[in-house]
Amino acid sequence: MKILWLDINSSYSHSSVALPAIHAQVAHVESWEWCVVRGTINDSPGAIAAAVAEHKPDIIAATFWLFTHQMQIEILSRAVQLLDGVKVICGGPEFLGDNEEFLRHHPFVTAVLRGEGEIAFPMWLENLDNIEDWDLIQGLCYINPEDGSYHDEGIARVAEFASLKYPEESEFFRWDKPFVQLETTRGCFNTCAFCVSGGEKPIRSQSLEQVAARLENIHAHGIKDIRVLDRTFNYDTARALDMLSLFEQYAGEMRFHLEIHPSLLSEQLKEKLATLPAGLLHLEAGIQSLDINVLEECGRRGSLSRSIEGLTFLASLTNVEVHADLIAGLPLYTLEMLAEDVVRLVEIGVDELQIESLKVLPGTQMRRKAQEKGLKYSPLPPYEILSTSAMTPHDIRRAMHISRMVDFYYNSAPWQDITRTLILMVDGFLLDFTRYLEEIMVLDSPLSLERRGVILYEYCQAHCPDFTDDVSFAWIRGGFSLKKGPAGNVRKLKDVDGYIAERDVQMIVINGSPDPSLKYYLFTASDGQYVFGYTTEAHHSAPVFCGLLINP
Ligand code: SF4
Fold this sequence. Notes:
There is one protein chain. Helix 1 crosses helix 5 and helix 14 (413-425) runs antiparallel to helix 17. The chain has 18 helices and 22 strands. The chain is an alpha/beta fold. It is elongated. The protein has a seven-stranded mixed β-sheet, sandwiched between helices. Strands 8-11-12-13-14-15 form a six-stranded parallel β-sheet. A hairpin with a 2-residue loop joins strand 20 and strand 21 (528-534). Bound molecules: iron/sulfur cluster.
């Protein structure tokens, strides 16, 4: 029997682990031949369907994610036209909800699997021709072709998660991607109504020894970026400490992305985090909202004050990067509250801030209670929120524009400090600047780093002129052209020592060290004169020296 895995991702840098995770369990079954056809959502569905047909599979298996859903349908609906008698099975997060409507609308899909596939999928393969036994397969949903009845076998969970073979053991594991995902735990202790993991119980974990063995293998393949899939990473302090010590052994060679709960940071864990080598960790701190009522409405457990305290601690560390996120469109969450939370997180000093719109996902409590909570959302993937009792469609759109603005400016290294200054010091900057970007219509397309600086400079000139010098500083320090407007009042200094002597001033070093080989430029700001030194005449890179001229 030939099984074809249709592996469609949103881009070439992503790769689903579903295929290697399932294949690793059954690679020894000689009568099952596996093959894969890969693509992205930007490919031609017809071309991929033709590639599928060339393999002449008996089974096509496809995983559906938010952004691959439509493409998978486009491909499958074509492929089945070319393959008589082929059976199609679909799985993935898109099928965590009610699957009857999907199956009735897509009769070419033989069955859908809800939940974890490592045990249930091979069981279905073994019982392919015994439809009377399909009701014994946990998680399987199908329409019986004989009588048209819908069968739904609940959700598949692998009880013995730790005894599964590792995805890396499969020949289909992708070692050629920029990062690998390392799933060490399944399930989550929390009950967030918007999250597919909110109902994922019980928590099941691999032992430290297992994780160590997998890491050794991953390291041997030269992988540098690891995304650790563990929604409960710091739920158990002792395990988290052990895991961090394990990761530390790879400092300088690998970087780990972790999800962390700021409200659950014990003192021991804080001490450990503070001592880890710089660059080892990128932390994703789940925040979602800083309003207690919003969080309670979402069923999210945990103390908000401890969460803010934990996040403040994490943001104070210089050896880890901290990413925080907010979700626009949560019940009770207004645009004003969201804007206040953005300001608060900027004040706390997170390294990266993401504002997402709520996705009302299949299988979540939020989806089940959407009507009761006044949520209107897209019936099509990605099921994004359209309006709530607290946010009009216009508010949602504005929230997404704030998100874009934050991405363009706060999440962008050359502009982060100046954006923080403006958000914290200029009343109403966050919303006013976002409105300005809307007016000049730059939010819906890519914007170069340089263009961002020009726009910010022009905005400050018109609306908060006291800060134009600060933008010029950011521009110069960012290594942008000294010939363009945002560089402000800057000119070349041929003889820096002569200039200093002539005016009888002193130069205080702000950073770097003065060197005769540097090329110097003088920037005259409203509060004084600054000297910037460059290693090249072309000054295409950032200055390596900065000094302030003062009267002695
Ligand atoms: S949002 Fe995070 S904490 Fe909440 S259920 Fe999902 S994984 Fe767990």
